Amino acid sequence: xxxxxxxxxxxxxxxxxxxxxxxxxxxxxxxxxxxxxxxxxxxxxxxxxxxxxxxxxxxxxxxxxxxxxxxxxxxxxxxxxxxxxxxxxxxxxxxxxxxxxxxxxxxxxxxxxxxxxxxxxxxxxxxxxxxxxxxxxxxxxxxxxxxxxxxxxxxxxxxxxxxxxxxxxxxxxxxxxxxxxxxxxxxxxxxxxxxxxxxxxxxxxxxxxxxxxxxxxxxxxxxxxxxxxxxxxxxxxxxxxxxxxxxxxxxxxxxxxxxxxxxxxxxxxxxxxxxxxxxxxxxxxxxxxxxxxxxxxxxxxxxxxxxxxxxxxxxxxxxxxxxxxxxxxxxxxxxxxxxxxxxxxxxxxxxxxxxxxxxxxxxxxxxxxxxxxxxxxxxxxxxxxxxxxxxxxxxxxxxxxxxxxxxxxxxxxxxxxxxxxxxxxxxxxxxxxxxxxxxxxxxxxxxxxxxxxxxxxxxxxxxxxxx
Length: 467
Hints:
This protein has 467 residues and is mostly helical. Helices cover 73% and strands 2% of the residues. It has 20 helices and 3 strands.
């Protein structure tokens, strides 16, 4: 097998067209990876500058009413990790900036697709585009005739006479092409190593998952092409069928299965979701409505707790308690409706992951985005962490308004600058890959399933050919 592998590479290197395309793809990959890293670092710097600017506004804020400050709000920025340069995932569509304020949970905004017509139509020229679409096509055109060419020239019989089994010959040729894909992958990964000042274990694990996911997919692509060549024994038929299958995997099946999963676990429209939330919200206390009956019930509870007869006798500011009660009811409404929404989104994602048994490209995309931290699971984790911070942020302001020294009716009372400076920053830490690795077991199993199935089929066909 080693001799066959060696001879394949000798043949590759004698082919000027192969050398041209190998050099072309290598240079293209290096350039795209390099400029992707530069662009990603610029985005990280822009986010850091914006984050520091928002923090500076709070640190230099004059004495003011805490509840007014809650309406002024702050911003949470979804951090761009250095691995985003490999696969941007859903970030360009979902956005990276979330406004946090009292009484209201906003949606992530400022996605690149919403601000750029070119990006929204064609996407960005990322490393993942090369790895997922262009390089597989290159491998298909290299693999479709590696068996039939040997058969037509009679060299296959010579190799078998020398004591090589047909399956050994076929797999040696598959591995020779896979080694080319490995070199291209390794080039991109190697550049990423220079991108990190210090490579943490989690980043090393993510890079490893990224590398082996694509390696497994390329093995499937090459082996499937060779399998069809074994079946049809005709270059045109093998190439045509492989291209049709590749188009199904990358274009038609993702859209079809995506629509199917949406029907299996349908989501409410944005209008329906807002209407349901408004209906439930109206059933709770309204901190800005002085005639709300639920406000009177809360007022009696607070008066009883402090053993006084009127709000003016309270040693605290009832308005702050009222605002926080309003906020907590809104949180319950949000947990109910957005909790259901997030659950349905994860269910849709699970259904789509199972489609990997039909389409290995779906598993590859899932692992590629997951390893780079740009998929749905990471996005929902960011949204949950941002919401937890929003609740801490608003509660801290309302508690200061209620218990910081003001009394009921004292509308001119203001919190000091020292208080605003004491509010903690939102520092989102991306979930470690090990903590969420179980969510990608389906994708890993799908790729292994495809690899083992194709290996078995090639082995069986090779034996039949000899018979």
